[in-house]
Amino acid sequence: MLPSAHDKSLPNNAVTREEQLAHVLAERRMAARMEKKTAGVAPLDAGLVFDQAHSDGVRQQNAYRRERGQVDVTDALNHDIRGKPGVSIAEYKLANGDVEYIHSSNYGTIDDIRNPGKPLF
Ligand SMILES: [Zn+2]
Questions:
Q1: Angle subtended at Cα 11 by Cα 56 and Cα 61, rounded to the nearest 5 degrees
Q2: Which residues surround the ion ligand 1 when the cut-off is CB under 5 Å?
Q3: Structural domain spans, the chain
């Protein structure tokens, strides 16, 4: 599980579970609104829905981060590890140039977090 925004020991720009909740809730709301608006009119392009919904998720995530005095997340990439099913490294790029890496296995169990400003190895 990601650390909580209430954890006072976290580095300033660490990724938290609360900002992820803000992201996912905004993302799902936008997707539902798009689907409702076009219901019975035209089929939606799944890629378009994801792009727009995800964009709104990032916007709300960053609004939450700014409220807490954190810099924006500018990009989040997931890197699957070749030959290791279910193992991946998430890479969160931050507006100040720092990066946070989250290593997970079993399709989402977090094993290690390298907070912003710390090298991956
Ligand atoms: Zn998203």
A1: 5
A2: 27, 54, 57
A3: 17-114
